[in-house]
Amino acid sequence: MQLYSFWRSLATFRVRIALNLKGIVPDEVIDIDLMKGRQREDAFHAVNPQMLIPALVEDDGTILFQSLAIIEYLDELKPNPPLLPGDPRGRARVRALAQIVACDAHPLLVPRVREYLEHQYRLDEPQRMAWCRHWIAQALAALEAHLGHNETGHYCHGEAVTLADICLVSHVAGAKFFAVDLAPFPQVARIADACLALDAFARAHPLRQPGAPATV
Predict the structure, then answer these.
(1) Whole-prediction pTM value?
(2) Could you say which DSSP state residue 100 is in?
């Protein structure tokens, strides 16, 4: 199994957490430096024509892409510990919380969007950062509101880690990269701290990956 990764990629952070929780160690981790545009090179284009990471390549050559799809694949491949609740409503809630991050907010923050804002609309760095902080905060506010539900426990949904927690933690890491204050979102911050106390989350953190700076 090969994992195409980059230390700062929040989507790959999610997949690393899931791999750790499942006790799956890729045979090879291939670095795709998004800041240097390595995702546009022919070798990676052949792996994922969308030129996005993560990508997970199985030993038989099967290529998996999109973080949520990869995580659900891993959950089916190795069902314990489960990352989705056993009941339909619970699964729907967890997926919805996860999608606030992975489908609504994160796509607006990625390098290709920031580059488009710079080159197409001539937004300077402070303007691009304001754009990112706005959408990060919007998602944090949505998560905080939904976490007021009585199904929230020690984690996003009850007392066990789920896909929702994986996505929440990745979003909190992004918030810290972009210097967004978490004080208005105490439930989000509490759950992120609880998750990052777990080895599977802590080892997957972007700042603990090869090539990462000491701080951002």
Answers:
(1) 0.94
(2) I
